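Justification of computing resources. Each target in the renewal requires a structure prediction run like the one illustrated here; the chain below, 236 residues long, is used simply to show the kind of job we budget for.
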Amino acid sequence: MVFTVDVPAELGRFFAEEIAAPLGVEFHVGVPDSVDPDRIAFLHGYRPAELLLHLGTMPRGFVFGFLNPRSVTARSFANPKVLSEIGNYNLPEVRRLELPAANGTGEVRAVARAYGDAATGGTTLGLTPSTLDALTRPAAPPAGGVRDVVLRVDTAFSLGYLKPFPRLRFGAAGDRAFGTPGAGGSFGFADPETGVGFAYAMNRAGFHLWDDPRELALREALYKDVLGERSQRPDQ
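Resulting structure tokens:
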């Protein structure tokens, strides 16, 4: 497989200098050649057609949109086209791409550390009170409605982050948390009400847009059993 992508080599450097370095974490937007590939876990993915076997857990609209190459869903996820299959993120030439929406590579604890700094005031990253206030306030409903044209379900995004809403209840009851679920079941978020920076990632991709049972079990144990906060399950 041979492909070329013209991507400015700036976002990776910005992240490395302005976020990873101050936090002292190992996380890359575009993996440099200096990183030993044997240290990177192999991601077990699946072929897009397998989504049809999981219409009980994946929204039907999303599945059919993902499989339609002309849809906004497919064009968003398959940009460049090689990204249409999760397993292709294992390719060295893909790991090198600086695609912050999908191609971060690093330790899961690094994601938790970054969100943890935001959850406890953002001192290390230099976040201002006005920035934190903007991140934690409720999402303003879009003028066109809450239906996400890419995911094809109702969502609540603000400043690039997902906010708690009825179908995805994360963090404490005040709903000041903000974060982002990832493909295959991963999830990371900051919760200023508890000071928690949470992150979960898996080696085998699952078939949920969010609330993957593996991730949800960990989040539920933390919030309900350890912290005594509300259940993270949307039906409770």
